[in-house]
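Record minuted for completeness.

…
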Amino acid sequence: MGDDRVSDSELNALVDDELDPARQAEIEAWLADNPESAQRVARYRAQSAGLHALYDDILNEDLPANTAALLDVRRAGVPAWAAMAAAIALFVVGAAGGWIVRGDGASETGAQFAAASTTPPIDTQVLMQRASMAHVVSHQDELRTPAVGGPAAMADYIADRMGKQVRVPSLDSFGYNMVGGRVLPDTDGPAAQFVFTDENGHKVSLYVRSEQANGVDITYALADDLSMFYWNDSDRSYALVTRVDNDTGREALLSAAKAVHRQLSQ
C-alpha cells in the first residue's frame, strides 16, 4: 500500500473508530511499515483517551437546547477533536469561578464569571479553552527544547514565529525546570506555550496569547481538575495551568503565577 492511499482524514477516522473493519485492517497493516505515521496515530489516541478520561462525565450530562445545537457537529462535518474542544470551552465557562489577586496582597472571592458584571475585559472563554487544551495535549516530543542556547535561544525561537518578543519565564525556584516551548495557532495570531516539570514529572504550563485589553489582575479559575491563574498586561493574556489536589497546591500555583507575573513585567 502506498503512502498516497492513506490520507490524514483516514488517520483521524482510524483514531475515532469510524472506519469499516476492512479498511481499518489495511491501514493498521500500512502503519506497521510506516513508524512515523504510527507514532502520530499513537499520540492522537493518547490525546483522545486523556480527553475522554477528563471530560466524558461532562459530555454525558443533559445540555440546554442551545448548547446541544453547538455540539451537534457531526452533521456539520467538524472533527471529533474540535467537538471535544467546544465541550471543554462550554464547561470551563460554566464552571469557572475564583479569586482576583491584586498585587501581592490577599485574594478575594469572586462571583461566577458567567453571571458577574465584573467579568474581566478579555475573552475569558477563549483564553481558558486554549490554555486548558494546550496543557492537556502537550507532549515533550512536540516541544522545542531549551537545551541548546538556553532561555535566550528559546526566546529567539518563539519571537521568530510569533513576530514579537516574548520573555521566557523561570520556575526553577519552585522546583520546575523548563522542558520546552512551542508556538500554537490562536484566534488573534500565534500563541506561545512554555512547559515545565518537576522531578516527579508533574507538569505546569504557561500559555501566552496576544490580546488587547484594559489589563486584568491575577485571577483564579477552575476547569474540572485543571486549575489556572490568568492575567492580562494590556496587549497579552497569560494563563499558568496545572492540576492541583488541594488548597496547598492552589496556593503554590498562585505563588508561581505571581513570580511569573513579576518576571514578565520587568
Summary: The two ends are 57 Å apart (CA to CA).
